[in-house]
Amino acid sequence: MSAQLALRGVSKSYADRIVLDDVSLTVRPGEHVGLVGENGSGKSTLLRLIAGLEPPDDGTITVSSPGGVGHLGQTLDLPDDHTVQQAVDAALADLRAMERRMRELEADLTEDRMAEYGDLVGAYEARGGYEAGARTDKALHALGLGHLGRDRTLGGLSGGERARLGLACLLAAAPEVMLLDEPTNHLDDAGLTWLEDRLREHRGTVVAVSHDRRFLDRVATAVLEVEAGAVVRFGGGYGGFLAEKAAARQRWEQAYAEWCAEVAQVEEFAATTAHRVAPGRVMKDRNKIAYDRDAGRVQSSVASRVRQARERLRRLHEQAVPRPPDPLRFAGVFAGGGSQGVLAALEGVRVGDRLRVGSFAVAPGERFLVTGANGAGKSTFLRLLAGELTPDEGTVRLRGRIGHLPQETVFPRPELTVLAAFADGRPGYPDEHRDRLLALGLFRADALGVPVGALSVGQRRRLALARLLTGEADLLLLDEPANHLSLTLVEELEEALDAYRGALVVVSHDRTLRDRFTGREIEIRDGRPAGEE
């Protein structure tokens, strides 16, 4: 089957930063491809290049799509004074043009126009043109926009409504090739399920940037990972991506173990051989004649082997296999785990009109998953438990060691390097902190001297996570821990949380994390934990 999308030697830079470097890939007709990678790795850039919105610096991009190409950015790029209806019309412009031409041909359908008309009708039917209106209404209702009047201006919509409107318009247009940048943002569970079903039914090609693991698992037939300017393809959907990542980790661990074993073997050989030819070696009477006769030749031969061993050792260290990072684990022996009492308690608490809590307590080892709509008060709830927010009413009682990962990671001293910020306020020597941070695999050695203020959002998130992992907490408070982390890192983090034996309160919209979570669930609705009056 021929390629529908093909990139050959494509490179793209912004200023002096290389985003994509000599990338070649193909996507076949009908494939549903998930595009994954760290924030800032170049996923959105790759989509824009395929959509023709930006030119590559080098290389060629070929897109063959008679049924049209639709691109959904993370923001709806239309003026604020446009109406909802104008947004719909803009998305359906191709279909509307086809309709007008069909009407023109029908008005004077001569024999020489029959071929054009037949081709046009076939293309229109293939695009589902006759169902476009009904498809628009269905998409708007499914994505929670059925209440919007078609005369509403875009400037009066929230950011989430604008994003969902853009998605609804693209799905209504139903182009053969859909290029979607984070289409799951701003959707509730019902909207997510509807979107997944709609894309699975799409007979054309889909390339979607997403961090949503369930979306990828349900929709993607292949995964493209963007990393360090390169793009790597994984077959078998999201499950195949995880399996290959795990296999690559095993190969790395095996290669490192073999390298360590060979280094030890060569070092032992060099040391023991050198010992055998040492000047003080005992010479026995029965081998005196042979020793005198062969001493020079034997010593020369052994010395040669020692030189060879040392040269081999030098090459081994030049081509060293780096040590794989340790599996993520939260540190600490939980002193409060077997004691009586609670680690955090809220009684009669009120924070403005954002949150009211009658009574809530976290005992050692308890696990809570906090859910609720955006703006319900979940982050405020965690900040109270962390002791970072003083309520307008009520009391907050805290005991033990508390670790908090907020949604917005802010370091008070942006001039500090990554290593200095990691070590800030902790005992120990710089080399100890360096080894401990590198062992996590969250940063490369060349990033440790970068000022915190120059880090991306995802890098700051990893630094905050590194401090949390290596600290000791009886109670962990995690606010959307999957945000801004790579998919493999999120999978590792879940395993670390499973192994953690302290108390845990997690706020998350990640459906996979929520499905796997073991513990009690609390929904915050209208500023109150569900069930409280």
Give your account of this protein's structure:
The relative contact order is 0.10. The model is unreliable at 335-339 (pLDDT under 50). This protein has helices at 43-51, 84-91, 93-107, 114-126, 132-142, 159-173, 189-201, 213-219, 237-276, 288-318, 378-386, 418-423, 430-439, 457-470, 487-499, 511-516, and strands at 5-14, 17-27, 32-36, 58-63, 69-72, 177-181, 205-209, 222-227, 230-235, 344-351, 355-362, 367-371, 393-398, 402-405, 475-479, 503-507, 520-525, 528-529. The strands form 4 sheets. A 6-stranded mixed β-sheet has the order 5-6-7-3-8-9, with helices on both faces. Strands 14-15-16-12-17-18 form a 6-stranded mixed β-sheet, with helices on both faces. With 533 residues, it is an alpha/beta fold. α3 (93-107) packs antiparallel against α4 (114-126) and α5 packs antiparallel against α6. β17 and β18 form a beta hairpin.
